[in-house]
Design brief:
The protein is of the alpha/beta class. Helix content is about 45%, strand content about 20%. Bound molecules: adenosine-5'-diphosphate-glucose.
Length: about 525
C-alpha cells in the first residue's frame, strides 16, 4: 500500500484519431507484425525513442496517454481481433527497439469492410476532405460505386459510435479525451451522451472552410451540433476558427462570442492552436553520421546545380501538377538555368484504392515525363519524381542540401513540410516558396516567398526570384522563420491544447455542484 501511495498520480489522456500510428500486417491466425507509420498527427505527437523516458507524449508529460483508433486492417474474426489487441498492448513491450514502447499504449477500434468503405473512403475522403479544402461540393456520385450520400453519412455516424464505445469502455473518471480531425466530428456528441461529465476536446487538422462552403453539406447542422458538444474546439489558425463560429451563427442561429459559441447558456470554447514540429529532432539529426553521409552523397550527385525540393503526400490538395507546370514555365522562360537546376519531387502515395488518386498519379507522371523529354539531356533530367516515402535520415539530408523548397498546396491545414525544411536549413539558408493557402503562411509568411499556387506565372517568377536571391536577404528571411520553428513546437501545441481542455470546467459538473 505504501508504494502505491508514493506513486505520483497521473491523469490520463485518451487520444482518439481515425488511425492508430501503426500499420499492422497479419502473419498468421493469431499473430501480427506492427510498424509505426508516419503522418501529420504522428509527427506531432510521437516521441522519438528515448531510453530514459516512459512517455510517448513529450509535451504532455504529466499525462499518461492512450491512443485509440482503427488499425487500418479488416479483422473479421474474433481470434484475430484479440491477437491484435494483445499485440498492441503487450507483444512488443520487451522489444529491444524502444520505438515499440509506444505501441503498448494503443487500443484498436475494429471496423468492418463495408463501414470502412462508406465511412472512410466515402464520407470522409470523398465528401469532407475535398469540401474542407475547397476542392469539390458534396455530390452523390463522387464515389465510383455510387452509394447514396445518406447511407455514407449513416456509416459515418455508426463508425463514430463505434469509436465512442471503445472510448467509453476505457474511460475512467478524471480522464481527458482529445478527439482528432474530420473523421470524428460526430464523436463529441456520442461521448457526451455516454457521460456528460467527460472532458472532451476536438481538434481539426484540415482547414475549416468558409460557412458558405460548409452550408452546402446536407448534414451541415448535425455535424456542427455534434462538434459543439465538445468543451474545447481547436483549429490551426484564427481564420478557420472564425469560419467555424460563423457557420454556427449563420446555419444554427447560435450566438458567437469572443470565447466561442454559446447555446442556451452553455459555452463551447473555440480557439486557434497552431501546430509545430519537434524541431530539435531534425536539428540534432543533421549531426548524425548517416545523415552526414547522405548529405555528402547528394551534394556530389547534384554538384553544379541548384536543388529545388517538393515533399508531399500525393494528394490533390498539395498542388503537385500546378507546381511542376510552374517549374516548366520557369525553364521555358529561363534557358540559362536549364542545366543548372533540378527539381526533386518526393510524393508518398496515399489512398491508392481511390480512383481520383490513381488519376492524379498518372497525371503527375505524364507531366513529369513530358517536361523531362522536353528539357532533359543525355546526361541529366530536370525533374526527379519519386513515388515513395523516404526514411527520416534521408529526408533530413534532402532538406539540408536544398536551395529552394516548393510548398504549393491549394489548401493545407498547416503544412509541416515547410517547418521541417526551415529546421534543417540553418547552415544553408535556403528559400521557402509557400502557398498563401497553407496555414503555415500565417506563421512563416514573413520569411517565405508567398504565392498563389493557381497562378503558374507567379510561381514561375518566384522560382526565379528565389534562385537569384542575394545571400543577405536569404539569411534575413531564414532567421525569421527559423526562430518561429524552434520556438513553436509540436510538444507545446499538444501541451497547450490539453491543458486548456483540462482547465475547462465542464458545464455538467458545474450544474452538479450548484
Ligand atoms: P498532411 O496532409 O499529411 O497532414 P503535412 O503537415 O505536410 O501534411 O505532414 C506530412 C508529414 O509526412 C510530414 O511530417 C512529412 O515529413 C511526412 N512526409 C510527407 N511526404 C513524405 C515522404 N515522401 N517521405 C517521408 N515523409 C514524408 C495533415 C494536414 C496538414 C497539417 C497536418 C498536421 O493536411 O495541413 O499540417 O495534418 O496537423
Amino acid at each position: 500500500e505504501e508504494s502505491e501511495d508514493r506513486r505520483p498520480f497521473r491523469q490520463r489522456l485518451l487520444v482518439v484519431a481515425n488511425r492508430l500510428p501503426v500499420s499492422a500486417v497479419r502473419r498468421g491466425e493469431d499473430s501480427w507484425s506492427l510498424e509505426i507509420s508516419a503522418g501529420g498527427l504522428v509527427t506531432a505527437l510521437l516521441e522519438e525513442p528515448n531510453p530514459y523516458s516512459d512517455d510517448f507524449f513529450k509535451g504532455v508529460k504529466e499525462f499518461e496517454a492512450r491512443w485509440i483508433g482503427w488499425a487500418g486492417v479488416n479483422v473479421p474474426d474474433e481470434v484475430g481481433q484479440k491477437a491484435l489487441t494483445r499485440a498492441l498492448a503487450e507483444k512488443l513491450l520487451n522489444s529491444a527497439n524502444d520505438v515499440y514502447r509506444v505501441l503498448q499504449k494503443c487500443i484498436p477500434v475494429f471496423l468492418d469492410e463495408e463501414i470502412v468503405h462508406q465511412y472512410y473512403n466515402g464520407y470522409c475522403n470523398n465528401i469532407l476532405w475535398p469540401l474542407f479544402h475547397y476542392l469539390g461540393l458534396p455530390q452523390e456520385d463522387r464515389l465510383a460505386t455510387t452509394r447514396s450520400f445518406q447511407s455514407q453519412f449513416a456509416a459515418y455516424k455508426k463508425a463514430n459510435q463505434m469509436f465512442a464505445d471503445v472510448v467509453n469502455k476505457h474511460y475512467e473518471e478524471g480522464d481527458v479525451v482529445w478527439c482528432h480531425d474530420y473523421h470524428l466530428m460526430f464523436l463529441p456528441k456520442c461521448l457526451k451522451e455516454y457521460n456528460s461529465e467527460m472532458k472532451v476536446g476536438w481538434f481539426l487538422h484540415t482547414p475549416f472552410p468558409s460557412s458558405e462552403i460548409h452550408r452546402t453539406l446536407p448534414s451541415r447542422s448535425e455535424l456542427l451540433r455534434s462538434v459543439l458538444a465538445a468543451d474545447l474546439v481547436g483549429f490551426h489558425t484564427y481564420d478557420y476558427a472564425r469560419h467555424f463560429v460563423s457557420a454556427c451563427t449563420r446555419i444554427l442561429g447560435l450566438e458567437g462570442t469572443r470565447e466561442g459559441v454559446e447555446d442556451q447558456g452553455r459555452l463551447t470554447r473555440v480557439a486557434a492552436f497552431p501546430i509545430g514540429i519537434d524541431s530539435h529532432r531534425f536539428i540534432s539529426a543533421l549531426e548524425a553520421l548517416p545523415v552526414q553521409d547522405h548529405i555528402r552523397e547528394l551534394a556530389e550527385r547534384f554538384k553544379g546545380r541548384k536543388v529545388m525540393l517538393g515533399v508531399d503526400r500525393l494528394d490533390m490538395i498539395k498542388g503537385i501538377p500546378q507546381k511542376i507546370l510552374a517549374f516548366e514555365k520557369f525553364l521555358e522562360e529561363n534557358p540559362n538555368w536549364r542545366d543548372k537546376v533540378v527539381l526533386l519531387q518526393i510524393a508518398v502515395p496515399t489512398r491508392t484504392d481511390v480512383p481520383e488518386y490513381q488519376k492524379l498519379t498518372s497525371q503527375v507522371h505524364e507531366i513529369v515525363g513530358r517536361i523531362n523529354g522536353r528539357f532533359g539531356t543525355l546526361s541529366a533530367v530536370p525533374i526527379h519524381h519519386l513515388d515513395r516515402s523516404l526514411d527520416f535520415h534521408a529526408l533530413c539530408a534532402l532538406y539540408a542540401i536544398t536551395d529552394v523548397a516548393l510548398v504549393t498546396s491549394l489548401r493545407d491545414g498547416m503544412n509541416l513540410v515547410s517547418y521541417e525544411f526551415v529546421a534543417c536549413q540553418d547552415a544553408k539558408k535556403g528559400v521557402l516558396i509557400l502557398s498563401e493557402f497553407a496555414g503555415a503562411a500565417q506563421s512563416l509568411g514573413a520569411g517565405a516567398i508567398l504565392v498563389n499556387p493557381w497562378n503558374i506565372t507567379e510561381v514561375a517568377a518566384s522560382i526565379a526570384q528565389a534562385l537569384n536571391m542575394p545571400a543577405d536577404e536569404r539569411e534575413k528571411r531564414h532567421k525569421h522563420n527559423f526562430k518561429h520553428v524552434i520556438s513553436h513546437t509540436a510538444q507545446e501545441w499538444a501541451e497547450t491544447f490539453v491543458s486548456e481542455l483540462n482547465d475547462t470546467v465542464v458545464e455538467a459538473q458545474l450544474r452538479t455542484r450548484q
